[in-house]
Amino acid sequence: MVEAGTPGASWRFSDAEDCTKEAQRILRQNDRGGYTVPTPNIYPFQWNWDSCLVALGWATFDETRAWQEIESLFIGQWPDGMVPHIVFHRDDPGYFPGPDIWGTASLWGDRLAVPTSGISDPPLAATITLKLWRSARDQQQAKAAVERLYPKIAAWHRWFHTARDPAQDGMVAILHPWESGRDNSQDWDAALSRVPTDDLPPFQRRDLDRVDAAQRPRKEQYERYLSLILTFRGKGYEPKAIYEASPFRMVDIGTVAILLRADRNLRVLAETLGYREDLVEIDRWIARGESALDRLWDETAGVFRSYDLISGSFTDAITSASFLPFYGGGVKPERCTRMVEVLERWGTQSSYPVPSFDPGDQRFDSLRYWRGPTWAIVNHMIAEGLTGCGHEGWAARIAGATARAIRQSGFWEYFDPITGRGLGGDDFTWTAAMWLAWAKDFSPPNDSSEDAA
Ligand code: DGY
User: Fold this and answer.
1) 13, 62, 69, 200: which one has the fewest Cβ atoms less than 10 Å from its Cβ?
2) Is the distance from the beta carbon of residue 85 to the nearest atom of ligand 1 less than 6 Å?
3) Active-site residue 252, yes or no?
């Protein structure tokens, strides 16, 4: 792997302690009282998987606030168990598509306290809740929070395993690219091309007011994102109707892996809290998740891939999500070895792994959202998984690369995997959280060279 240099004057943080102080400042700055916005100028609401990961950062210096971060997310939970990917706690005109486009405010009458989006996000809450509980200094506070959270998280998992897996075989589907969190990944190109874009109302994106268009999804992708929302809205977001109507129905390898880990962690929560009657059902979910993971293995490429339920074929992309089964756990050792071989190759082609797309593929784009850049949160999950299956060396390399990118460039939404340059939104909450909860422990030593600041 190509190593970038040690911290110096050209680095944003030549001192690791300054970096930690800045990370805490960003969390406080982006705190809206019980929930944290990802970055105020681009994403002014609460995002689902952001909040789960951000809770890990809060826990390093304010445990009470960490629990609030998870609990506030469930204010937006739908009566059918779904936890939306955005909770619109307050109005803000600076984001498209806002609550008026989603049209969910009156969907559940007074059973839903706040407007939300109408799709979900990778289900991290069980995993993060268990992690926070195990490391909590205040065990009494933690136990009370977990007792409140458990039934809500279990209902969310039940929603995934029913609404999104009608065949009951573990091939849990996402119906919108945003549900994967990897909005414009090459994984979705073929399936998105099926989504019609005629008859769309005129709309104005707000993301391009703040971020260079070269780093964001293209217009034709936004048209398709909007088209899917309007289809779901037209069906009243009724789970069976939208599952059948959606021209985009994908088994995202990232979601399957994250859900599998979350199911295993939910089982631990159920057992510890005494929800014995839930164990049989959760065991069934875990068995199905393991079998789905097995089906998503590509023996030729030596990695896992996402799957298109409509065309009945694998995607032709290898993405950073292909490594998330490390996080899901239970991958056979010979498969882990094959996956690490792919990581090795990617590591020779990028100084700041893990890129979100194969750097050896001609479609690789080191700048554009989810089509090449490196993300601290995905790195964190891959590294946790690698540690769990005996590949601590690679876990430390990924953590070290993340720490170098942050020290060099600051708390950006994502990073160019070749240069470490920061991309997307600045002062980004989940990058700050990943520094606090993980990457700082793998940071290079402060510079002793002459050009240090
Ligand atoms: C966005 O607006 O870019 C978000 O990723 C959607 O969730």
Assistant:
1) 200
2) yes
3) no
* pLDDT tens-place string over residues 39-70: 999 999 999 999 999 999 999 999 999 999 99
Residue 106 is encoded by which pair of tokens? 């009156």
Residue 278, ligand 1, Cβ within 6 A = no
The set of long-range contacts for 264-268, using a CB threshold of 8 Å and a minimum separation of 24, is 264/329, 265/126, 265/127, 265/129, 265/130, 266/126, 266/153, 266/154, 266/157, 268/130
Q: What are the contacts of 238-242 at 24+ separation with CB within 8 A?
A: 239/80, 239/82, 239/159, 239/162, 239/163, 239/164, 240/163, 240/166, 242/175
**Residue 233, both tokens:** 């809205």
Percent of the chain topping pLDDT 90: 95
- Nearest Cα neighbor of 142 from 153, 130, 157, 126 is 130
Is there a catalytic annotation at residue 198?
A: no
Which residue out of 51, 174, 178 has the highest number of ligand 1 atoms within 8 Å of its CB and is therefore the one to mutate? 178
